[in-house]
From TrEMBL:
This is Methyltransferase domain-containing protein. Residues 62-153 form the Methyltransferase domain.
């Protein structure tokens, strides 16, 4: 297990996790990307650019959940996305991502304690990369993702695959939301080398049920 993961897994509360991200915000990118170790953001960006054709990238409204230092936002901006918002609980990480000047609205919030102040039903695309897992967004947090998205919008999650207990509960919960017709599973893909030596997975690219304004059809 890499040292940053060890550090995070050694914590017992949300406050401790956020304090670690605060403390490491300026070195985070170097730490996780060193020697090409963490590929999550690049995998997500590749998937998003495949989903959204170039001609739609300016109009698609995107929410980056657990945005960290904004690596995904920067890469998406380079691909022509201009309507990006971010949610991030660590003040330090938030400062870093704001300095990148690619996000329009930034929300200092965390997922897991009731509703956030993020506007509901506004986003064509909601994603989280590296934000789901032990000591991070609880598996029930995906319901909040559903609330953020427009009817017909897309939710994408990109995460490590080695947290079996969490992943099992997440998949069961996702299935329950599907039974309630809140969303529909589109696909789940194994990811090679999400973090070098650690497989990843998109446990579900979900399309929200229902019709309404801003329906995004792929
Ligand atoms: C591994 S980093 C990923 C950051 C970024 N998405 C990336 O790929 O570089 C995980 C992020 O999740 C955030 N996080 C942790 N718990 C969270 C929660 N309950 N709600 C929202 N974000 C959370 C952390 O502050 C941290 O920035």
């Amino acid at each position: 297990m890499d040292s940053f993961t060890q550090l995070i897994r050694g914590t017992g509360s949300v406050a401790e996790v956020i304090a670690i991200y605060d403390e490491h915000c300026t070195t985070y990118e170097k730490m996780v990307c060193e020697k090409g170790k963490y590929k999550g953001p690049f995998i997500l960006v590749e998937a998003v650019t495949k989903e959204v054709p170039e001609c739609r990238r300016k109009e698609v409204r995107v929410l980056d959940v657990a945005a960290g230092t904004g690596m995904v936002g920067v890469a998406l901006a380079q691909k022509g996305f201009t309507n990006l918002d971010a949610l991030e609980p660590s003040e330090g990480m938030l400062e870093c991502l704001r300095s990148k000047n690619v996000y329009t609205n930034t929300f200092h919030e965390y997922i897991g304690q009731g509703h956030t102040n993020v506007p509901q039903g506004c986003y064509d695309l909601v994603f989280a990369v590296g934000g789901m897992g032990y000591n991070h967004i609880p598996f029930t947090g995906v319901l909040e993702f559903v609330r953020f998205a427009k009817p017909g919008g897309l939710v994408m999650i990109c995460m490590r695959h080695d947290e079996e207990d969490y992943l099992t509960k997440l998949k069961e919960y996702m299935n329950r939301l599907e039974e309630q017709q809140l969303w529909k599973k589109e696909f789940s893909t194994p990811i090679k080398d999400f973090l070098i030596g650690t497989e990843g997975v998109t446990p579900g690219r979900q399309k929200l049920c229902g019709v309404g304004g801003g329906l995004l059809v792929f």
